Amino acid sequence: MCVCTLISDGTIIYLWLHMCFSRFKDDLELTKLPPMNGDGMVKLKYNINGTKILEPCTERVENKLPATTRRGKLLKAKVLSRVFSEDFERVKKKILDPRGPVIRRWNKIFLVACLVSLFVDPLFFYLPIVKKDVCIDIAIPLEVILTMVRSLADAFYIVQIFIRFRTAYVAPPSRVFGRGELVIDSGKIASRYLKKSFWIDLLAALPLPQVLIWIIIPNLNGSTMMNTKNMLRFIIIFQYLPRLFLIFPLSSQIVNATGVVTETAWAGAAYNLMLYMLASHVLGACWYLLSIERQEACWKTACDLEEPYCQYKYFDCNKVKDPGRLTWFNSSNITSLCSPSSSSYPFGIYGDALEFNATAAPFFNKYFYCLWWGLRNLSSLGQNLSTSTYAGEIIFAIIIATLGLVLFALLIGNMQTYLQSTTVRLEEWRIKRTDTEQWMRHRQLPPELRQSIRKYDQYKWLATRGVDEEALLEGLPLDLRRDIKRHLCLDLVRRVPLFDQMDERMLDAICERLKPALCTEGTYLVREGDPVNEMLFIIRGHLDSYTTNGGRTGFFNSCQIGPGDFCGEELLTWALDPRPSVVLPSSTRTVKAISEVEAFALRAEDLKFVAAQFRRLHSKQLRHKFRFYSHQWRTWAACFVQAAWRRFKKRKEAAKLRAMEDLMVAEPEPEPEPTKPVSGLAIYAAKLAASTRRGINMHSESDTGVVSPLQKPAEPDFSVDEE
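-> structure tokens emitted (723 positions)
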């Protein structure tokens, strides 16, 4: 939007241009923009003829383009130099988001590749082998296999370098915005990467062992075996350190992105155990190579005693057919001098490799033996090592003891923590149960009560596994809590006929207020005459519900409640009253669990809120449903029908008796037989008895009337809401 304003003297026009506001701070390399006034708008000055008045701040801006074009390009460059994560979708094809799913997935893949490369590199130490002709050779098949596997692992490091050049980073000055701005300028990303960790990644990606054993060593003068053994030791260790170093920042990135390296306790324990085994693997490979060097040192010592017939080059298997070597070897006793059973040379901690012929064994045999040696001494902190007086051997033993102590404290400690986390709740439950037993003995509770407490604790553990569901849900956001409660309780709540007419929001409110409840077999949830403080919705299990009408003799009504049913509807009657009393209603029934019961409880204060919304429904329909599904109303209705039926039967019998009596009175008296005269006193007595029976029936009928033997339940008054 542009606004042109003419100044009173007619000499200058101010052109106001709206500036595109952005949340980004100015980059250091961005040229300064034209000056801004207090309203945050760019101000450019022009003469009346349209020529621009140059100012010092605009001399740095390119003058070949119009001001609006220059400003648009500057803003475009600004927008593309930094971006927030939510705006990253526009440039995601060119630059990768460090917190995006692609980088998170690649970090896990690259972590596995790093672990594989850390496992492969020490295997190069197994290339030298000792043969029975007292010479050292190179295992060509193993050399080819390791070259192929190592080249494949190096490809992942090269891909990692390429990805790092295309991964945005968070600008440090922008962290005041919370998550910060992502710098997506490829030049800045490359410059920052080259200044920081590029050289470490490049050193880790170089194929140094392959170049060494296939190109450099064959072209060197002297013994090929000697050059391979000596240079491998330094090259592998030199490149192993940066590769090992890359594991730690990579693990930190995974933890920052996902929270943990592994999502399960068993995977975490396996990860730490694998690192411990990796250390044993490295120590075993180093011990194997040093054993060959110690054996070679013994050969050289014996060779010095047999000069000038013996030369060091004879210990290379490429010289095994040399005539001079054949002459020397046939007359030499070097095999007996360098035997591990001989005490003429101190082999120290490398004696086991020579005694069990590990240096000349097939690859898998010597590998597993060396792995076992490394694991055994790493776990025992090198306590079983008997070293000689060689400084290098002693230093190697010190490294084993120190590394074993550190790894045992860190990796094994972490693995123990992971494994204990799977049973920590079980241990807590056992401790709590022990405390409960001590408390019951201290209070001298009867055996029946103790058994009930034990059964409840056992069932609660089986149902929840020690998880506090309420505490777990409280730590979740409101929408997640609502969805979880809806999933668990909605179908159950809809089974209640009084709730099936409510809308979704109201049902969600009810579900949010439901609390889990557990009952063992034989537990009385409520007794007849006790106050009702909650309404229960049964998930699983069965209960008996019965009433004696306040202990009335000869009266008993019983029914069974199962999954999907509810009890405690007296509380609903109390809550539906527009003016409920402070005193909770008394239960008209006794509810007893006949099996383990799991339910959701809706407490009195929560039910008040539900009832306040429920009174907005159609009162006649509500009253009908409440009467139809309430056990209290069903009992009263059954008693009412029973009383009406008895009253009907009594009236019917009384009417029949009256008809018979009237018939007897209306009939003419038969002619008296001459042989059997009838007395008038007998007729009067019969009429008096009939009149007495009729009076008794009428009195009994007036006493019973329409009164039911069971008192009619209280009915909520909806007149307030209807008015």
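The mean pLDDT is 73.
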